[in-house]
Amino acid sequence: MATPCTLNRYLLLMAQEHLEFRMPEIKSLLSLFGGQFASTQETYGKSPFWILSIPSEDIARNLMKRTVCAKAIFELWGHGQSPEELYSSLKNYPVEKMVPFLHSNSTYKIKIHTFNKTLTQEEKIKRIDALEFLPFEGKVNLKKPQHVFSVLEDYGLDPNCIPENPHNIYFGRWIADGQRELIESYSVKKRHFIGNTSMDAGLSFIMANHGKVKENDIVFDPFVGTGGLLIASAHFGAYVYGTDIDYNTVHGLGKASRKNQKWRGPDENIRANLRQYGLEKYYLDVLVSDASKPSWRKGTYFDAIITDPPYGIRESTRRTGSQKEIPKGIEKCPESHVPVSLSYHLSDMFLDLLNFAAETLVLGGRLVYWLPVYTPEYTEEMVPQHPCLKLISNCEQKLSSHTSRRLITMEKVKKFENQDQHSHLLSDHFLPYQGHNSFREKYFSGVTKRIAKEEKSSQE
């Protein structure tokens, strides 16, 4: 049986993509706005319907001003596994909480939302008519109602086995929609300046939300590329800054990444991207710099570091070096010249990134980055650790049958001290990091095997 509704219970309607990213995003945003993730369900799995306890409607509205993983939120008035249970639940909801939205001077409409099933108009009207026991005194207005109410029916996740009756039925007052439209309005397809690895708009906003980016923060990307992650943070009112080792990318020079365009134009750069969205005032600067040798003075500068390091697939992993580091057999350059083509192992890159974050983040600041993994060999022990950083979330996005990347979110919980810089060398977890160094070879090995398999099957 459904339990009677209590105060501050909300129904969250989630989007059915990036499923692993949804929970960390909602938890991070609730924490940002003074709430706490308190659920009345033990687990959500893949369900689009989440029941949450949120302290106030203001926090619920602020949550929806940020989330790209949720479609809408409702103040939950009733819930049941059958129409009878739903009606019983609604009759137990305090009338005094309903009255402000149902009085005679108000206008309203009722919508029917079904998941994994389509209802006829006749069936929808029948469900609306069955709610006539509710104390509605206002007038119906289908175009511009003051209040919108929804019946939401859940028919499970299997499109090949749709039940006759819903598993759960919810009724609630619509509060606000999420920010799903940002995925389209900030689409990379419409962006002025892009590269081979420009981050998908939806994932960029998810990363900014995982990083708890807020107004007047300073957000840094040490592998800035074409600045896609800066755009998402600037949209939320943060001042953005970045570095990259690639001179041509930082200055918008060289060959274009767009089809049918040979060279980049004079106005294709990161600043122009922010200008395109009216965000130029949040742009601090972007410098050509080596992430392995940061030139920052000691101090805590950043509220968040949000980045997508190169994996050595479409973008090479490089760092600057000195004459002593040049392998034997390579002709030495003049002493004044610093080569920029030395290899930069992925394990070293991530350890440098964690050390840099531990040194430069404010306490409570977050590091959000992508970690590429070879799926058959992946274990949680492969995720780099640092004594100053606490792991908040670890979400997988599959790249192929044998590779994926994991979105790692960490929070600075301890002030950085000199001995923390090399603490990973004493850790039992250090050896598994080395597995990242062969990611490129394993990636292409898997691609070669897949192509050979496809060719063989096509010949049979």
TrEMBL record:
- Keyword hit for Methyltransferase: yes
* Domain tRNA (guanine(10)-N(2))-methyltransferase TRMT11 N-terminal: start-end pairs: 9-180
Q: Which PANTHER family match?
A: RNA METHYLASE-RELATED (PTHR13370), TRNA (GUANINE(10)-N2)-METHYLTRANSFERASE HOMOLOG (PTHR13370:SF3)
Q: What is this protein called?
A: tRNA (guanine(10)-N(2))-methyltransferase TRMT11
Name where it's found: Cytoplasm
Which taxonomic lineage is given here? Eukaryota, Metazoa, Chordata, Craniata, Vertebrata
Q: Which family does it belong to?
A: Belongs to the class I-like SAM-binding methyltransferase superfamily. TRM11 methyltransferase family.
Transmembrane stretches in the record are none
Enzymatic reactions = guanosine(10) in tRNA + S-adenosyl-L-methionine = N(2)-methylguanosine(10) in tRNA + S-adenosyl-L-homocysteine + H(+)
Q: From the UniProt record, which GO molecular function terms apply?
A: tRNA (guanine(10)-N2)-methyltransferase activity; tRNA binding
Q: Which domain of life is it from?
A: Eukaryota
The residue ranges of the Ribosomal RNA large subunit methyltransferase K/L-like methyltransferase domain are 190-320
**One Gene Ontology cellular component annotation?**
tRNA (m2G10) methyltransferase complex
Q: What does this protein do?
A: Catalytic subunit of the TRMT11-TRM112 methyltransferase complex, that specifically mediates the S-adenosyl-L-methionine-dependent N(2)-methylation of guanosine nucleotide at position 10 (m2G10) in tRNAs. This is one of the major tRNA (guanine-N(2))-methyltransferases.
Q: Cross-referenced SUPFAM superfamilies, in alphabetical order?
A: S-adenosyl-L-methionine-dependent methyltransferases (SSF53335)
Q: Which GO terms describe its biological process?
A: methylation; tRNA processing
Enzyme Commission number(s): 2.1.1.214
